[in-house]
Write a structure and sequence with these properties.
This protein is α/β, with parallel strands linked by helices and about 475 residues long. It contains 15 helices and 15 strands. It has a seven-stranded mixed sheet with strand order 2-11-10-9-8-3-4, sandwiched between helices. The chain has a four-stranded mixed sheet with strand order 6-12-13-15.
Length: about 475
């Protein structure tokens, strides 16, 4: 402040400055008030909270700083996508059509929406209009954004099932909506050996029903579920559907893990239930479908009257997505549609490819003191770490929640990075996730083997 005062004096005089202390104090106080006023006016809008970093930003930074040898945190493969997928993009990038690299149709590249209709129409049991009932978005993330911002108004309530993808909460609040939370809770299984599966995480039907009222605009359903890998069964879906119909509520069905369901489980699309097509917006992802998360392309399909609101949001924020990427995805679907009934179709083979990785990591976790929930779908495992509580001193980590402290210390000591699940809960329910860590297994076999080695070495040191 003294240096600023000196500078101010020089500016006022040009050469010599004589300012009475009261005058200088007045100037300084006035300047402070001005600066405070500017800061208040340009502060982050309240709907974004205090602007704290998301768990993804925080843990990417943790990985950069601590450099753990194995990253089982974020959900993306560390190996190549199917050859025909990357080949499609390579060929498109150098083809003879200059328009491949220019703007395409704002709501979705014509070839892609046509092929999306061919993929989903048989699964939904009705012909989906590619022009009016499908929107291509910048990742499933934007599809969720367009669906929420396009339908939720100030004061509308949105029911969210926990644990949830962390963007749901922020998007609802950005629209002026009010999130209402209900949690999947772990029921101890009545099985020999006590193996926990994602089916053991269940909703309290009475609690869910109590959240529906005249203000309820929407419910967000995530099946197959991230991070639990739960595949909602018909009974559970019918209960949700009946509440939606009773209270005239829209359902966003986030189904990005739809192709990663392990037999004998089957993914049921809630839009196929009686009376639900009319009130369901279904979200999908090319990143998850073809293991190309960096392509950041997703979509939503819904009846035209619901889709109209998404189109308006989309045209006023993104407008159109990357043309060559859309063309490559369209070609990839074309390739898979030609062999749809073959076991080699990637939409069928992906789950078979992931199953041994899942089983290997489940076994590794059990042998090293964790109690994993065996997922029915997806590529995440949520594992209870409290069996290791006497082996790890968390006092040096200052985070509020135990799972943050554990995952950070475990990354630094064992060299294996994971994600804390409390990031996926509302404040009143965060205690439900504190005893767990989320592991991703869509990784090279050698990296899963390295994770096993590191965990065994860490455990050996702790004896």
């Amino acid at each position: 402040m003294f240096r600023w005062g000196q500078s101010l004096c020089k500016a006022l005089s040009g050469r010599i400055c004589v300012v009475e202390s009261r005058s200088l104090e007045y100037i300084l106080n006035n300047q402070c008030r001005t600066m405070s006023s500017v800061a208040d006016k340009f502060k982050l809008p309240a709907r974004y909270g205090t602007g704290e970093a998301s768990v993804w930003v925080e843990y990417v930074r943790l990985a950069a700083e601590s450099k753990p040898p194995v990253n089982l945190g974020q959900g993306f493969p560390d190996y190549h996508a199917p050859a025909h997928v990357t080949k499609a993009l390579s060929e498109i990038s150098s083809n003879d059509n200059p328009l491949t690299h220019q703007y395409t149709r704002g709501y979705g590249h014509p070839k892609l929406v046509q092929n999306l209709s061919k993929v989903y129409s048989p699964l939904i049991g009705r012909e989906i209009d590619p022009i009016n009932e499908i929107l291509v978005t910048y990742g499933a993330y934007e599809a969720l954004y367009a669906a929420i911002l396009g339908h939720v108004d100030h004061g509308d309530e949105v029911i969210v099932i926990e644990p949830f993808f962390d963007c749901y909460d922020v998007m609802i609040k950005s629209a002026g909506g009010v999130p209402r939370f209900t949690a999947l809770r772990l029921q101890q299984p009545n099985k020999s050996g006590g193996e926990v599966t994602s089916a053991d995480w269940v909703l309290d039907e009475q609690e869910l029903a109590s959240l529906f009222n005249d203000k309820t605009k929407m419910i967000i359903l995530n099946t197959p579920h991230n991070p639990l890998g739960k595949v909602f069964n018909m009974k559970e879906l019918e209960f949700i559907a009946n509440l939606c119909k009773k209270h005239n509520v829209v359902c966003i069905s986030d189904e990005v893990y739809e192709w990663m369901v392990y037999e004998p489980k089957q993914h049921i699309r809630i839009a196929t239930l009686p009376g639900m097509w009319e009130r369901t917006i279904t979200v999908g992802s090319a990143g998850k479908t073809f293991s190309v998360t960096g392509w950041k392309t997703g979509w939503a399909y819904a009846p035209a009257n619901l889709m109209k609101n998404l189109l308006i949001v989309h045209q006023n924020c993104v407008y159109t997505c990357c043309t060559p990427i859309q063309e490559a995805i369209a070609s990839s679907f074309e390739y898979e549609l030609a062999r749809r009934d073959s076991p080699d179709c990637y939409l069928r083979s992906l789950a078979r490819e992931l199953l041994p990785k899942r089983d290997f990591l489940v076994k590794t976790l059990r042998e090293n003191g964790f109690n994993p929930t065996v997922p029915e779908a997806g590529y995440f495992i949520v594992a209870d770490w409290t069996g290791l509580a006497n082996k790890i001193d968390l006092s040096s980590e200052k985070d509020k929640y135990k799972d943050y402290r554990f995952t950070k210390k475990f990354a630094k000591e064992a060299g294996v990075l994971t994600i804390p699940p409390t990031a996926f809960y509302s404040e009143p329910h965060k205690h439900l996730g504190e005893n767990f860590a989320r592991f991703c297994f869509i990784k090279k076999d050698e990296n899963l083997a390295l994770a096993e080695k590191l965990m065994k070495e860490w455990n050996a040191k702790k004896k």
